[in-house]
Amino acid sequence: MPMDKDALIRRIRCFTSLSTEEEQVLRQLAGERQRNIGPREDIIREGDPPHLVYLVLNGWACRYKTLEDGRRQILAFLLPGDLCDINNNVLQEMDHSIGAITPVTVAQIGHERIADAVAAFPRLSRALWWHTLTSIAIQREWTVNIGQRSAFERIGHLLCELFARLEAVGLTRGTQCDFPLIQTEIAGATGLTPVHVNRTLQELRGEGLIVLGNRVLDIPDMPRLQAASLFVADYLHLNCEIRGGDDDAASFRSVA
């Protein structure tokens, strides 16, 4: 699987422009100790000490928790350009697991390398805070999804979100994108049963809102799906302009 060292750069460009030197630093971070993980394998498990930050270079992963009886709740999908728990070094152990959905390549980055990068280039501090806060905003939206939206809206909303995130890092093709999720994974992310997911996907297909097959998602009319799913992309913060100066870089370095 070819590595994509620029996915993080493309994601951060949604927040701010980057100098050639800053892009080079991010490519160096993406080139840190790379590790290939097979599908359904864990990258890090709940209870493990979090010594590293993982940057997804290729493939899809997820953040999840498992109950004692084996039931699993998916808390987030992690796509190329996503950093996993950038500030986890303040904790003694992981309180959730991160697992691969497809074959995944990650860069394993030491916290000291991130601290050095933001010390040399303070604008990266704010960019990485944006990355972290956007991840938290997505988590809030998922809570609203499960608590308030119908099954039709939940799944439609999730499809809109994933497409928007993939589009932001250059991984869509017109109205299409790769979509490796199976129904049990959609169920684990939306609080539905696989049977309910199957029925809802059929409804979305019947309405002409999606075409889904052979691990490819096609959304022929995105505005229509967004309206039907009550999807507003603001929480993804994909078109921000950097605000303020670089005087708060030290606040990031204190936990990086």
CATH superfamily of the largest domain: Jelly Rolls
Give a count of the beta strands, DSSP E runs of length 2 or more. 12
Gyration radius, to the nearest Å? 18 Å
* Count of domain modules: 2
CATH topology of the largest domain: Jelly Rolls
Largest sheet: 4 strands, antiparallel
Return the CATH class of the largest domain: Mainly Beta
Helix content: 40-55%
Cα(first) to Cα(last) distance is 30 Å
Properties at a glance:
alpha+beta, cNMP-bd_dom_sf, Arc Repressor Mutant, subunit A, disordered C terminus, 9 helices, Jelly Rolls, 41% helix, DNA binding, Crp/Fnr family transcriptional regulator, 256 residues, four-stranded antiparallel beta sheet, cNMP-bd_dom, transcription, 12 strands
3D architecture notes:
The structure is a single chain. It is globular, with a radius of gyration of 18 Å. The chain folds into 2 domains: 7-142, Jelly Rolls; 151-229, Winged helix-like DNA-binding domain superfamily/Winged helix DNA-binding domain (Arc Repressor Mutant, subunit A, Orthogonal Bundle). The strands form 3 sheets. It has a 4-stranded antiparallel beta sheet with strand order 1-8-3-6. The model is unreliable at 242-256 (pLDDT under 50). The chain has 9 helices and 12 strands. It has helices at residues 7-12, 20-30, 111-120, 122-148, 151-168, 183-190, 194-206, 222-229, 249-253; strands at 34-37, 42-44, 52-58, 61-66, 72-78, 83-84, 97-100, 104-110, 172-173, 176-178, 211-213, 216-218. Strand 11 and strand 12 (216-218) form a beta hairpin. By secondary structure, the protein is of the alpha+beta class. Helix 5 (151-168) packs across helix 7 and helix 6 (183-190) crosses helix 7 (194-206). Helices cover 41% and strands 20% of the residues. Keywords: DNA-binding, Transcription, Transcription regulation.
